[in-house]
Amino acid sequence: MSSRSLADIERQMGSDLRLDFAWGGGFFEDADLALGKRADRGSSALDVTTLDGLDNFTQAVANRLKTRKGELASLGHPDYGSRHHELVGEPNVERVRNLIKLYVLQALAAEPRIASVVSVSVSAEHAPPRDSVRIELTVLPIDRPEPVNLIVPFFLGGGAP
């Protein structure tokens, strides 16, 4: 770990609007903006909430993988996202799962807050395989001693089951 302060490292991880993932438990699917009570307006006032530091890092990695590469081009980010969405409609076979892994690794390489990718696995969630795969990641954030684990589902059929 570098000599930089924890506050500096947390700032480097950034901040963003907090998303509430419907399935929870580190399973990144079906997100909506998270709402929280406003301290300055009484107990019933709600507003969108933010997150920062390592929580933002985790959400940012999931968002990068859930976004189709090129989807944000009109916002000035043509290379943001992953190409694995191009595989919708393909069969859930080893060749396609290997392509998903390749595209995920390419997307992770573009994330400046990742020091290294420890592991990526793409597996069929059912036997025999259906149209869903499970992408499991272990990544090491910059200036952090502990890796972060994520599970990002992907549906080759194009939608959630």
Overall description:
Helices cover 24% and strands 29% of the residues. The chain has 161 residues and is α+β, with helices and mostly antiparallel strands. The chain has one domain: Nuclear Transport Factor 2, Chain: A. A three-stranded antiparallel β-sheet has the order 7-8-9, with helices on one face. Strands 1-6 form a two-stranded antiparallel ribbon. The chain has a two-stranded antiparallel sheet with strand order 2-3. Helix 1 (6-13) runs parallel beside helix 2. It is globular and about 55 Å long. The model has no long low-confidence stretch (mean pLDDT 80).
Summarize the topology.
Elements: H1 6-13, E1 15-17, E2 19-21, E3 31-33, E4 35-37, E5 46-48, E6 50-52, H2 53-66, H3 94-109, E7 114-124, E8 132-141, E9 148-155
Antiparallel strand pairs: 1-6, 2-3, 4-5, 7-8, 8-9
Helix pairs in contact: 1-2
CATH topology: Nuclear Transport Factor 2, Chain: A
Work out the count of structural domains: 1
DSSP, total strands:
9
Q: Give the amount of beta strand, in percent.
A: 25-35%
Which shape, going by the Cα principal axes? Answer: globular
Question: What Rg do the Cα atoms give?
Answer: 17 Å
Number of helices: 3
Order of helices and strands: HEEEEEEHHEEE
Identify low-pLDDT runs: none
The class by helix and strand makeup works out as alpha+beta
CATH architecture: Roll
Mean pLDDT, rounded to whole units?
80
CATH class: Alpha Beta
Q: Can you list the strand order of the major beta sheet?
A: 7-8-9
Helix content: 10-25%
Q: How far is the N terminus from the C terminus?
A: 42 Å
Largest sheet: 3 strands, antiparallel
